[in-house]
Amino acid sequence: MPSRRPSRRRPRDGSHPPLDLDRALGQMRAESGPDGEWSVRTVRGSEKQYLCPGCNQQIPAGTGHVVVWRNDSWFSDEHALGERRHWHSGCWRARGRRR
Ligand SMILES: [Zn+2]
To answer: Would you identify the CATH topology of the domain 25-97?
Structure first.
């Protein structure tokens, strides 16, 4: 029987808090706009419905949309995540064109 060994060993790095944001958030990208830096995450749909701030319409449960939050470094990631907003993908994209 072959001996088992840990497949990967993470070096201990004291500079990061033990937050697992990357895993919790899945795929996301950074976007910069006239109103700041944003993190944008595409989701397939959630169990809740949300109000899109772009058009003030509901995003029904189970509908793909984007979740955005400020990427400015003024606040901690945790705070920014608490302020995140759910948008229709199209509304988010069209956001800069509306006045
Ligand atoms: Zn919308």
So the answer is: first zn-finger domain of poly(adp-ribose) polymerase-1 (3.30.1740)
Go through 74-84 and write b for each residue having 16 or more CB atoms within 10 A of its CB, e for each that does not: eeeeeebbeee
Tell me the per-residue pLDDT of 52-72, one tens digit each, with 9 for 90 and over.
Answer: 999 999 999 999 999 998 887
Q: Ligand 1: distance of its center to the CA of 91 in Å?
A: 5
Between the CA of 17 and the centroid of ligand 1 the distance, in Å, is 35
* Beta-strand pair 85-87/28-33: unpaired
Question: Which pTM value belongs to this model?
Answer: 0.64
Ion ligand 1: residue ranges with CB closer than 5 A: 52, 54-55, 88, 91
User: What's the confidence (pLDDT) of residue 68?
Assistant: 92
